[in-house]
Specification:
The complex is a heterotetramer, with two copies of chain A and two copies of chain B. Chain A is of the alpha/beta class. In chain A, 35% of the residues lie in helices and 22% in strands. Chain A has two domains: 3-186, Rossmann fold; 198-326, Rossmann fold, CATH 3.40.50. In chain A, the strands form three sheets. A seven-stranded mixed beta sheet of chain A has the order 3-2-4-5-7-6-12, sandwiched between helices. In chain A, strands 9-11-10-13-14 form a five-stranded mixed beta sheet, sandwiched between helices. The longest helix of chain A has 15 residues, at 8-22. Chain B has one domain (2-311): 3-Layer(aba) Sandwich (Rossmann fold), CATH 3.40.50.970. Chain B contains eleven helices and seven strands. Chain B has a five-stranded parallel beta sheet with strand order 1-2-3-7-6, with helices on both faces. In chain B, strands 4-5 form a two-stranded antiparallel sheet. In chain B, α2 (50-58) packs parallel to α3. The chains are: A alpha/beta, B alpha/beta. At the A-C interface, α4, α6 and α10 of A face α4, α5 and α9 of C. The structure holds thiamine diphosphate (2 copies) and magnesium ion (MG) (2 copies). One thiamine diphosphate sits between chains D (69-71, 119-121, 149-152, 177, 179, 181-183, 243) and A (31, 60, 62, 84, 88, 91). One magnesium ion binds at residues 149-151, 179, 181-182 of chain B.
Chain lengths: 327, 324, 327, 324
């Protein structure tokens, strides 16, 4: 298969572009996604290719335009809606929690809401407490949603294409700090199914379960740990809801050690969910050490780079935690 | 010509009367079975407001779409939802229009253009922009109605939807059922200026206010508004009416007087329609009573259908969360 | 100590009333809390006692009046704000997630936000998907908030008084189905500290960790299980954030078995957090069985009473789960 | 009399000029150190909009309160925040006015009546109702200003705050810095009627529009608006101006022409004030240049203070989450 190198941002753009060509009902709405090219430049020249009728700049009215996207989805269109920073989902939270994911159920299965909500998530950018959050755990508590957090250009493209074709509301949490990272993807069209974890590194001593921006960090830590004789398996969940529990359990049974790593603050984070699934599974009987999690400190994200760096998980913390577990 | 007009208004009058009777009787049954403990949860009755619902829905075309409020029984009925299925829904039966999963606050039937009642005040307004967006894009002759209450006009969702619809010239007809109360809260307590029609001004949107208890007048108003909307973009209609029933199951009516309720009872839209049709010699008493009797039978049948229907099986609880 | 019987709703009202007498800066805002007495009748005759200036009916503008309450708190007042159903927190989620809990931190500690947000939480009332949720797990993921879920009239009164005196934003999740339940409280003034769990029943074989409406159900299950020779300890967390981890760990070390029960849907629920705390503690080494959780099924709350009852935890399910764990 | 007036307007003119110079030079330094990678995150500069900030803040009384926008540097400076502490904040230093935890988007100092810039567009408007509520309750002679942009006027929070403030007659002065763009989005694209002052009509609220580049005019307008607000309740002021700088760090300016920017540069509020003061013979060039030089020094000192200050210790990360 011929391959090409592409950035995470461009992989997302390619997915949108391909799906817009494939299906006339696909369109995109959001703030400054047209000539401004999106706050993170993701949409690039899409407006030139598809016109202002399909790449639509909205007023600053997240409640209004996300609601509009839901309504259009119910009417059979396939909106992709962009929320500039994932923190701003809070201003249209009702649409995300009470409307999109519940309509089908409340209406006895007579409607579907094929919408994708793309948004830029995470910190590390010095943007402080209201522009740096990782809110995926809240979303995973809402039956009716699907939640995706891709960690590579390939996953981003393949999963976004699946998300656009999915007949349910899908929240697609793009990782701000990954937009400019590069990776290889096939030239041919491909999709990646929603709900399948990906073992990004096989290992036999310890399982690290992670997703999004933390994946690279965990892989780097695994390299270091290998030098110290610890063989780490890294599972990239890719989709958080539905979660690929089977892949997690299988790995933990093999390695007898599990560490969950995420960027979101620890308390109430999705690591709890993952650990609960392990602790109530066959894997429980195989465990050789407590189930661990490594996440951001329980504070609002501070502005000062020194402080912000300090609250985030990093390679050193991952290495130290794994060593502690294996001791 | 005169005669033809008279025939038309006779037909229309009887249709409006039938809609209103169906709504009224439907809700009286709901109230009854609720008090017997045979209907669960809560229900918001629109007794007294049927003129607004009937006139609005009759002013639309069959292909038009509608988002209802939490007080949406009459809106759904007048839009043509199957009353048997709707009654079964409110009883929580598997034959219900939402398979018993939605209940009174979430009545919906896409096939009838009823895109759902909503438990969140004002949330329907942005949603309505969406179906209007789709219709406009597809160049369809379809208008979406967003019903909302006077209280809902204070929510941010109202503003965002009004602005979006006007900026994009979306074919949305915003219809405010102004019953001057949000639960116990009188409109004058929460709006400095209670003229809701003025809320269209900032958006460069036309607005009209109409007597919601005069379903003829509502019909006329909506009919021409629909014409406008499909060609030009959104419009706001304020239909002044009154909720004779309490807000929901638990309303002590402490916030208003018996006199006020009685005065509005006397002006209720069903009696008004009957009087109007009689006074104009459009219909005879017998013709009107025939509608009365016919609708009683229809509602009785709907109740029987609901009573005879089974509850869903527990297994069904997992269905309809996700579409394939 | 002389005692009196009181309902959960009246205990809440008493707490508000006492604190309003005690401190002129305390006032209450919300929809229909005056002459209507609140959608659940909690405020009763408060408006007659304190007048419309301190028991304030608001427009249906949760974003507006919760924001107003936050602003008033920053200005030194002590607002109690009522959101009629906890599901409606979603329409002012930005205020709850991005404003109230972050202002102090972002502003370097120069302001505080002494606000209580009271709201009615939970299902079992036939009110369907948008009026029945238990959203506490989302709130517990927000550093800067405190989250309380009282299960008895006494806890409700004592904790609400502490919440009103607290200098931070506190979310007080009242349990709809408990409003009319009765319990004994002392005649004298008392408060209950935020952050302390309460062992509602001592036992030595299995720990059930729970809170809110599920507490009575767990206690009833414990009674039944006692007859079968299983001695269950029931911990009522009372405060979810901050969480009394110590009480949990201590108990689990003693009983070697832990089950978490809550009404919120399972995936992403707070049970995950609790289990993660156990699984990464000394208690891990004492466990004789997998860590279990019992929660609502992962679906929007259905209207039909048969279905709604079916998705909720109940006594029989609790008993069956404990027996399975002890087998 | 004439002379006294002239003295007054001289004093005022020089004060406004100083405010504007401080703001301009402060931001030029921020831009500079940002480009050197010594300031992190993002910053929203208000270069070109200083007239609105200066005129507004000078029109207030010292005890008045203010919520700023994400583009709030000049608003905070003109309200009297310590520029050393503010500069240190933007550098992320522990001496910063928020101990380095807030940064450019969250500048606040309660003691100076600056209740915070906000990263969430329009969120400040409801918050402003709160301090106004407290002031009214306490019968204090205090007005709260809520700054917001033209784009923010499309958020639900705007509507809810406007309605609440008017229903309750709260002493809030809503001040719209209308620079006709929200990032790249021109006001005409997102509002059917771009006359933002009209957005006050539904709330029975008075509104006024003023040339935001004429800080004298803004001052006069705000001064009398403040009088009105403290006695009667809320008012909306729309200050028309222009953002010469890009939206934030990453703005290619693809959405507007060089000509447009240059035209507004020529009309920038600092040069306008200088010209006005000279033309009216209120001040001499030397007097104006003295302000220029003085403010350069002050800002240089602020930068030095920031550069000399240490970063916070990592331990500090846990502080200030909760109050005791
Ligand atoms: C966001 C939200 N806030 C509050 C409620 C509770 N509630 C339901 S109906 C209602 C009153 C609505 O008043 P109005 O819009 O005038 O409609 P009406 O009930 O008069 O038909 C309220 C406050 C809700 N369902 N959703
Ligand atoms: C709720 C929310 N949506 C979007 C943004 C991203 N954003 C920051 S500033 C801005 C433009 C604001 O425009 P305007 O209100 O006119 O203020 P200006 O930037 O022109 O000063 C946007 C979209 C945000 N911070 N918050
Ligand atoms: Mg009403
Ligand atoms: Mg602007």
């Amino acid at each position: 298969m011929p391959k090409k190198e592409i950035t995470y941002a461009n992989a997302i753009k390619e997915a949108i572009s391909e799906e817009m060509i494939r299906d006339e009902e696909v369109f995109m709405m959001g703030e400054d996604i047209g000539i401004y090219r999106g706050a993170f430049g993701v949409s690039g020249d899409l407006v030139e290719t598809f016109g202002e009728d399909r790449i639509i700049d909205t007023p600053i009215s997240e409640l209004g335009f996300v609601g509009c996207a839901i309504g259009a989805a119910v009417a059979g269109m396939r909106p992709i809606v962009e929320i500039m920073f994932s923190d701003f989902m809070t201003v249209c939270w009702d649409m995300i929690v009470n409307q999109a994911p519940k309509m089908r159920y409340m209406f006895g299965g007579k409607v579907s809401v094929p919408m994708v909500l793309r948004t830029a998530s995470g910190g590390g950018t010095g943007a402080a407490a209201q522009h740096s959050q990782s809110l995926e755990a809240m979303l995973c508590h809402v039956p009716g949603l699907k939640v995706i957090v891709p960690s590579t250009p390939r996953d981003a493209k393949g999963l976004l294409k699946s998300a656009i074709r999915d007949n349910n509301p899908v929240i697609f949490l793009e990782q701000k700090l990954l937009y400019r990272t590069k990776g290889m993807i096939e030239e041919e069209e491909f999709t990646i199914p929603i709900g399948e974890a990906d073992i990004k590194r096989e290992g036999k001593d310890c399982t690290i379960i992670t997703y999004g921006r933390m994946v690279q960090m965990c892989l780097a830590a695994a390299e270091s740990l290998e030098k110290e004789g610890i063989d780490v398996e890294v599972i990239d969940l890719r989709t958080l809801l539905p979660m690929d529990t089977e892949a997690i359990i299988k790995s933990v049974i093999k390695t007898r050690h599990a560490l969950v790593v995420h960027e979101a603050v620890k308390t109430g984070g999705i690591a709890g969910e993952i650990i609960a699934r392990i602790a109530d599974s066959e894997a429980f009987y195989y465990l050789d050490a407590p189930l661990k999690r490594l996440a951001s400190e329980d504070v609002p994200v501070p502005f000062c780079p020194v402080l912000e760096k300090g609250i985030l998980p990093d390679e050193a913390k991952i290495i130290a935690t794994v060593k502690e577990m294996m001791a | 010509m005169k005669n033809e007009n008279n025939n038309k208004s006779k037909e229309l009058g009887l249709k409006l009367l039938k809609d209103m009777y169906l709504s009224r009787k439907f809700e009286e049954k709901v109230q009854h079975y609720f008090s017997l403990g045979m209907i669960h949860g809560t229900t918001h009755l629109s007794i007294g407001e049927e003129g607004a619902a009937a006139g609005t829905c009759e002013g639309l075309e069959p292909q038009d779409l509608m988002y209802a409020t939490h007080r949406g029984h009459s809106q759904a009925i007048c839009k043509g939802i199957d009353i048997n299925l709707m009654m079964a829904e409110i009883f929580g039966k598997v034959t219900g229009v939402c398979k018993g999963k939605g209940g009174s606050m979430h009545i919906a039937d896409k096939d009838k253009g009823v895109l759902g009642a909503n438990g969140i005040v004002a949330a329907a307004l942005p949603l309505a922009c969406g179906s209007a967006f789709a219709a406009k894009r597809r160049k369809q002759d379809v208008v979406t109605v967003a019903f909302f209450g006077d209280g809902a006009a204070n929510e941010g969702a109202f503003h965002e939807a009004m602005n979006l619809a006007s900026a994009w010239d979306l074919p949305v007809l915003f219809v405010c059922t102004n019953n001057t109360y949000a639960m116990s809260t009188h409109i004058s307590k929460v709006m400095k200026d209670t003229d809701i029609a003025k809320r269209a001004i900032p958006y460069g949107m036309p607005a009209e206010t109409v007597d919601g208890n005069d379903s003829f007048a509502v019909y006329e108003c909506i009919k021409s508004a629909r014409d406008y909307v499909v060609k030009n973009g959104p419009m706001l209609i304020v239909e002044n009416t009154y909720r004779i029933s309490g807000h929901s199951k638990s309303d002590g009516n402490l916030y208003r007087t018996k006199d006020e309720i009685n005065a509005w009872k006397a002006r209720n839209p069903i009696d008004k329609m009957r009087n109007d049709l009689l006074e104009a010699n459009t219909c005879t008493v017998d013709e009107l009573d025939a509608v009365d009797n016919e609708t009683t039978e229809l509602i009785d049948k709907a109740v029987q259908f609901a009573l005879d229907s089974p509850y869903p099986e527990l297994d069904d609880v997992y269905n309809d969360v996700y579409a394939l």
